[in-house]
Design goal:
It is a single chain. By secondary structure, this protein is mostly helical. The chain is 52% helix and 4% strand. The protein has 13 helices and three strands, in the order ααααααβββααααααα. The chain has a three-stranded antiparallel beta sheet. β1 (124-125) and β2 form a beta hairpin. It starts with a helix and ends in a 13-residue tail after the last helix.
Length: 284
Amino acid sequence: MWAVAVGLVDRAVYSWIEDECSRSTVKNTLAILVRVLEQAVRDGVVDRNVARVTGWQREYQRAEDELDDPRTLALPSWESLTTLADALIARSHGQFTGWGHIVTFAACTAARIGEVSGVRAGDIDRATWTWTVRRQTTPGPGGLIDKGTKGKRARKVPIIEEVRPMLIERLDSAPGPDARLFTGPRGGRISTAVLRDATHWDEVVTALGYEHLRRHDLRHTGLTWLADAGVKVHVLRKIAGHGSLTTTQRYLHPDQRSIDEAGDALSAHLKAPRSLNHPRLAAV
């Protein structure tokens, strides 16, 4: 039983890092687990403290370093995304199509796996094809608050044409507005760890040549594609739910044509005739 617990703690820590939990959150949560299990060791209930996870600080630093250039973590094309989704389905038990659906929807909406897993039928506006990513602030079953946004900001995101047929199928079969649209084969909620284990994620991405790819990188993929599509940075920030514009700007990558057009625009501005009332610099 405790051998399983070792894996559970390890997976939990890395899931927190992927979900962008702060370093202090990870540290303080582990500290509580360590103290509880230390007492269990002293009482002879367990042989060792399985909450003493090592190496997570290095993993956290690596995640922070990668976020300095999140574009490098994105999938290159729509074809690569569909290939990944199909490969994950093929490796899963019973070839459950829901694994591919959640991966595709996460990438195309630049959302976190936890957010996609929390989306309900009532959150989708079929008139405008937008998804309202909400924060649940009222207790649900069992008195727990189920935050679909992992504590992040509520926001609206567009739903592109490529994923609408799949979404329509799920909406039409949903029993009500509170029904979850993406669940596991047994109806359970999907986490990053569940998705990894059920689809043999690490083996699949390695075989496809994307050894670096993590579940959270699907969000980097969507934001990179939106930036390359020319979405203005202030709009991209709202879609992403970023608190800082600096974070959003990391996804921008002006190509040579954009740079040339910027130079031409400045030249045209300087050559344009000025009115006599235009402010002028004066020597002091």
